[in-house]
Amino acid sequence: MTGFKVEKIADLETPLKYIKNMLPPIPTKSLWVPFLGHALDAGMAALFADEIVEILKYLQDPLPYVVAEACPETGNFYLGAADDIIMRKRGVEFVDGSAPGFAACVGECKDSKTAVKIARELQEKNIYTFIFSDSVNGKTMADQLRAEGVQMGWETRLVPFSKDVTGACFPLGFAIRAAMAFGGVKPGDGRRALLYNKNRVFAFVLAFGTVNDEQYAQAAGAINYGFPALTESDIPEILPTGVCTYEHVVSNLPAEKMVAKAIEVRGLKLVITKVPIPVAYGAAFEGERIRGEDTHVEMGGTKTPAFEYLVTRNLNEVEDGKIEVIGKELDQLKPGSRIPFGMVIEVAGRQMQSDFEP
Q: How many Å apart are CA 173 and CA 153, to the nearest integer?
């Protein structure tokens, strides 16, 4: 955002002074300021301060974060900042449309079942769920997902960044790095970075439980990016449009309606084909591991021979959407069965070439 280069602890003095100068005067209770400028500055100052706190955490031994793409199944499971490898691998998804956006989830849901329901709803829509911020009880949505046995990590698009409120700088830092890596934004060009995010990265904040002053400050920082905040709490709303495409802060929402409302408020356009099957599905589930006791039938893996083969055909040889099953249907197989499996995909198109088959 600023272009300040920080390589040593002493270098932090420059952004610290910058932050102090950004802080607006505290308004009196009798004075209502009719514009957002002061709140936006205070929010951005909060994000800069968050980043300084998180930088210092990386000097601790042991490191409070796990450097991995997938969360370990035991012990600490907060991943901290995305490294450059993850950034290159995942950031491009926000450019090519395979990831329509991300939800920055703050605090703790009313119960673990609600947390799972919201996570699954976001996964089905291919939206990344970035989790941070301790709640009143010192727990996050990620703790609730862990309690329910939900697999987390970049592979499943459920990313627990941090248990602290200062972890807000991780999802918003990810957005800025996406602007630099894929939008050609140069360090220090903060205005262009924010406009890129408003127009190209469709993100929003979901705040669960009681929203405290610190969390409200992070939400004010996110508004600079054009990312609206939605919450269950009874906090002051900011409904006029301006920095965000539509409303800025929407409150008093039931948890089960927050995702749908967020998509509307952010102006996110989704194309989803609903298939009548009794489980959640979507690209976000590709990285999830399936346990043996949860398996009806196993095809391939290391247990039986299996292959996938894609081949180009002429247009008149392919009927779009046609699926032919050769062999027994799934409901004809005994639970726990292991069978060989082959999947042949025939594709055709006016501009299809064999070079595209991989």
A: 18
Q: How far from 109 is each of 152, 301, 307, 347, 348, CA to CA, in Å? A: 17, 36, 42, 44, 47
Per-residue model confidence as pLDDT tens digits over 138-169: 789 999 999 999 999 999 999 999 999 999 99
Query: Mean of the per-residue pLDDT values for the chain?
Result: 90
Q: Are the C-beta atoms of 219 and 230 separated by less than 8 Å?
A: no
Question: CA-CA distance, 304 to 64, in Å (whole number)?
Answer: 41
Kindly list the distances between the CA atom of residue 219 and the CA atoms of 120, 138, 214, in Å, as whole numbers in the listed order: 23, 19, 9
| Cβ atoms of residues 116 and 208 within 8 Å | no
Written as one string, the DSSP assignment of 85-142 is: HHHHHHHTHHHHSSS-EEEEEEE--SSHHHHHHHHHHHHHTT-EEEEE---TTS--HH
Give tens-digit pLDDT for 337-355: 999 999 999 998 878 888 8
State the chain's maximal CA–CA distance in angstroms.
76
**Residues listed for the chain:** 358
Token look-up 């769920």 returns 129
DSSP annotation of 304 reads S
Contacts of 28 (CB under 8 A, 6+ apart): none
Rounded Cα–Cα distance for residues 328 and 341 (Å): 11
**What is the distance of C-alpha 265 from the center of its chain?**
17
The percent of residues above 70 in pLDDT, for the chain, comes to 98
β-partners of residue 297 are 337
Q: pTM for the complete prediction? A: 0.79
Taking only the tens place, the pLDDT of each residue in 286-299 is 778 888 888 899 99
Residue type, 74: T
Place of tokens 């948890």: 255
Residue spans of beta strands (DSSP E) within the chain = 101-107, 128-132, 158-160, 202-208, 229-231, 249-250, 297-299, 306-312, 337-339, 341-347
